[in-house]
Amino acid sequence: MVQPYNSSDDKKNEVRAMFNNIARNYDLLNHLLSLGIDVLWRKRIIRILQSYKPDNVLDIATGTADLAIMAAKVGVRSVAGIDLSEMMIEEGNNKVSACSLTKIIKLEVGDAEQLPYKDEMFDAATVAFGVRNFADLKAGLRDINRVLKSGAPFIILEFSKPVVFPVKQLYHFYSFYILPLLGRVISKDKRAYMYLPESINVFPAGDDFLEIMSECGFSGLKQIPLSFRIATIYVGHKS
User: Fold this and answer.
1) How many helices (H) and strands (E) does the chain have?
2) β-strand 124-128 against 105-109: which pairing, if any?
C-alpha cells in the first residue's frame, strides 16, 4: 500500500494530513498540473449524472466541492458532500457560499468507509479522484453501495495509466519528474505530489477495478477512457 508520507501512521490519517496541508492551493494545482483538462472530465461526469435525473446525490471525497457545485448548477435538488479533510471542507464551504448554493449543498467531514447516512438514502453517488485514496477500497465501495437506492448509479472519475506510445512515456516523465517539482514549489509539501503518481501506479485500473466493483455489489458496469487513458470514468449500479 502506498501512503503519502510513509510514516508509522495509517493511510487514512496520512491522507487527511496531506489534503489539510495542500487545501489552500488544491484548486490552483489541479487546474495547472492537468492543464485544465480535469474540468472537462468533471463535465463528462455531470452529463452522465444528468441522464439519471437524480434528486439527491452523494459526492464522496468532495474536496473543495467542484463536482458538488456542478451537480447543483444542473438542477440536482440536494447534494451531500463528504471528505476526510477538514481544510478541504472549509475551502469547499467557502466556494458553496460564494455560489449561493448553501441551501442545496451540505458538506461535512467524514469517512467514505463508514458513511454517516442511512441505507438506501441517495439516488446517485459520485467521486472524482478519491477512491484511489481509500485505506480499504472494498470497504469504501461496499458502504457507498449500502447508502444507494436499488439501481442507483455510482459514477467514478479516477486517474489511470496510458498504454499508447508516446503518450505513455510522456505521461510517466511528467508524472514522476515535472508534477512533483511543480507541486512541491506551489504547495510546499514535498510528498503530496510524489504520492500522486505512486498511487496511480498501484491502483487497480480498468477491468481490474470493474471486477472489484462487481464484488462490492455493483452491476451494469462500464468504463469510459479519457484523454488517452490518462483518466477513466467508471459507472456501476447498485444491484
Assistant:
1) 10, 7
2) unpaired
* Pairing, β 105-109 against β 218-226: unpaired
State the SS3 of 165-188: CCHHHHHHHHHHHHHHHHHHHHHC
Give the separation between CA 207 and CA 189, rounded to whole angstroms. 33
Strand, helix or coil for residue 62: coil
How is the chain split into domains, by residue range? Answer: 11-160+205-238
pLDDT of residue 98: 98
Q: How far is the CA of 38 from the CAs of 31, 97, 116, 158, 194, in angstroms?
A: 7, 23, 29, 10, 19
Q: How far apart are CA 239 and CA 149, in angstroms?
A: 9
Grid cell, residue 12, equals 487514512
**CA distances for 226 relative to 42, 45, 158, 230, angstroms:** 11, 11, 10, 6
- Sequence-ordered strand ranges (E) for 61-196: 78-83, 105-109, 124-128, 153-159
Q: What is the pLDDT of residues 103-159, one digit of tens each?
A: 999 999 999 999 999 999 999 999 999 999 999 999 999 999 999 999 999 999 999
Instruction: Please give, one letter per residue, the 3-state secondary structure of 80-97.
Output: EEEECCHHHHHHHHHHHH
Instruction: State the amino acid at position 26 in one-letter form.
Output: Y
Q: Domain 11-160+205-238: what homologous superfamily?
A: Vaccinia Virus protein VP39 (3.40.50.150)
Pairing of strands 153-159, 218-226: unpaired
Q: Are the CB atoms for 57 and 76 separated by under 8 Å?
A: yes
Q: How confident is the model at residue 185 (pLDDT cuts 50, 70, 90)?
A: confident
